[in-house]
């Protein structure tokens, strides 16, 4: 029996203190992982959930699956690469190179998650900070998210309970914990103040905060928010998908609010990213093209919402889609799911999913960190490196994409 | 005689539940869990308008689809709004329409709700 430390890739917290006990390749014990992380690791540790390599639903060897995938991608008139949010930075670099070589469209989940926000952070129009700095913040504000379910160790390991100062009695962090949400979540019950808004009301609250800073008469919740932020030194906003969807991916008013708040206090924003390395995808593409997602390598580099997975699927543009570590058939809107049936799908994934079941080619992959070493970018922008924790016969996304690239360029 | 059907129109925000991961390891309880998640949380006023109490089955529908779910009272939920866990049932009501918005309608599903009697359908 062996005991190994690993980085959990169940979400973008990338907790680096997980310990697993193993017998061969089987996980027999686990320490420090949260509800979500332990379920994630156990799920992939169970062979029953893992997919073999398949071509037209028939089991094949890895090399045959890669040959077939390369053939389909070469023949495609409008190939698209989607996903890579749970892959290592090294695999993502290979994915981008493959898209460039194919002259393909490339996008990831960030185009309908936190990509717009990450792009503003990378362009430095929105200030950000690392988790280390959050520990000395005067106010922590969660907006449109509930870490109790989305990132269960966030409060204890990185934000509220991880704070460097506690009040004299010793059981409460010396920081204002606030939350803005449409539901009275678990987080709301410990937040003071909790601002409850109705779905879609975020924009009005943001405008209210701007008005309050400018000294105009406005809503009470906005005035109250400005008041504690003014007295807090560093205030960190953790932004969830509730806000992204309420603003319909348009952060212009939010940026204006942050700009105004920054004149009276130190402000930082960290996106509550779900996928383990979605931010890594944004960084990788940004470094190479100065865009974080929704990109086409047809005739050079073009960028725009028409290259988002949503628009591509809506317009049925791709004839062949390579999906890496994502399950769009499960998490896309109903009207888009139907369109995936009309494309040739190639999936690289560790597990059996609805998307692998609909794919012409499935390439079985190792799970990042658990079975494949590499690196990833945590939600706060810090790079985290990890070694392979357990042995596997499966290849990493990085190796599979490298082989695909070799076949395509031959 | 025409049967009068009480209806309300609400905006639904969906949300995720961490137990969706956990339940994969408890196959004997998946059905029970999925039944529990097959719900819509509504305000007291909307339950009264519908003429039902918490626990009754309602039909939630829009131009995309319809799904029968359990109506639950959510204290503090404003009238005209509701909450649903993001599940395959809820997914049946979701849509991406670039004419209406840049993102899918996960946080603003406009739905019609009416009491559901299996014999009527």
Keywords:
heterodimer, A: about 400 residues, alpha/beta, nine-stranded mixed β-sheet, five-stranded parallel β-sheet, 18 helices, 19 strands, about 35% helix, B: about 120 residues, six-stranded mixed β-barrel, 4 helices
What does this structure look like?
Chain A contains 18 helices and 19 strands. Chain A is of the alpha/beta class. In chain A, the strands form four sheets. In chain A, strands 5-4-17-16-15-6-7-13-14 form a nine-stranded mixed sheet. In chain A, strand 2 and strand 3 form a beta hairpin. In chain A, helix 9 runs parallel beside helix 12. The two termini of chain A are 44 Å apart. The longest helix of chain B is centred in the N-terminal third of the chain and has 8 residues. By secondary structure, chain B is α/β, with parallel strands linked by helices. Chain B has four helices and six strands; from the N terminus they run βααβαβββαβ. Chain B starts with 7 loop residues before the first strand and ends in a 6-residue tail after the last strand. Helices cover 19% and strands 31% of the residues of chain B.
